[in-house]
Design a protein that fits this description.
With about 230 residues, the protein is mostly helical. The chain folds into 2 domains: about 1-100; about 115-230, Leucine-rich Repeat Variant (Alpha Horseshoe), CATH 1.25.10. It is built from 14 helices and no strands. The chain has helices spanning about 1-10, 20-30, 35-50, 55-70, 75-80, 85-95, 100-110, 115-130, 135-140, 145-160, 160-170, 175-195, 200-210, 215-230. The termini are far apart.
Length: about 230
């Protein structure tokens, strides 16, 4: 049945009865705990991404690789990052594969894409809280595309480390939406640092946000944060 379902992928689109792929869905579940069977399933699914099957079929495969994907699937998924139609599903899979190779593929992909596709890859690095991407994200804070600069700021806030906070402070984005995102992201970093017991690092971030030019909500957040750092 599984082989028939894999064969059905060759002509699959969203108008096809999804029941034809049910054996694949079931295999994703039944191979749990069986390393050999799951590896075989992963290899067969990943192989479909290098063929001429439809966009819908590749979309489906990426969804399955989100669940069972390993480092073995990374090169194939990485190859789709520059595909405007499939990049989003490929990166969704990559952001969920725990292998370090998946994070590296996303970092490598940053320089190969632009616009909305780059915004998506940046977002995936943020979801992964990929600390190794901090320098690359910092370099994008003043990107000519304000949406890219804003996404980089948000991702740095998601990463939440002292290094990410420093990148936000040093970067000084100029686009209004990126500047606001950087402020919010800096607060997020400070909160993460405080929650992890790194009060000195958190306090340094809060102090970098002190200023009469800040919106009221930012001034209030900074005040609360500094009080929390003081243990009061």
């Amino acid at each position: 049945m599984l082989e028939l379902a894999l064969e059905a992928l060759k002509t699959y689109d969203w108008g096809t009865d999804p029941k034809v792929l049910l054996p694949i869905d079931e295999a994703v579940v039944t191979t749990y705990g069986n390393a050999g069977a799951r590896q075989d399933l992963e290899a067969k699914l990943a192989a479909c991404l290098t063929t001429g099957v439809s966009r819908d079929a590749k979309d489906y495969v990426c969804r399955k690789l989100m669940v069972i994907g390993t480092a073995e699937s990374v090169p194939t998924l990485a190859g789709l990052l520059t595909d405007k139609d499939l990049s989003h599903m490929a990166r969704y899979a990559l952001e969920r594969i725990p292998a370090t190779e998946a994070a590296q593929a996303l970092r490598d992909g940053l320089a190969k894409v632009s616009g909305a596709t780059q915004v998506g890859v940046i977002g995936s690095l943020g979801v992964r809280r990929d600390t190794a991407s901090v320098p690359a994200l910092a370099a994008l804070l003043n990107n000519a595309d304000a949406s890219v600069a804003r996404a980089a700021a948000i991702a740095l806030g998601d990463i939440g480390t002292a290094e990410a906070a420093k990148a936000l402070t040093d970067g000084k984005p100029t686009a209004p939406e990126a500047k606001q995102a950087a402020t919010d992201a800096s607060l997020a970093c400070a909160e993460d640092l405080l929650a992890s017991g790194k009060k000195a690092e958190a306090l340094a971030v809060y102090k970098s946000l002190v200023g009469d030019g800040q919106p009221k909500q930012v001034r209030l957040a900074v005040t609360r944060g500094m009080v929390a750092c003081a243990g009061k």
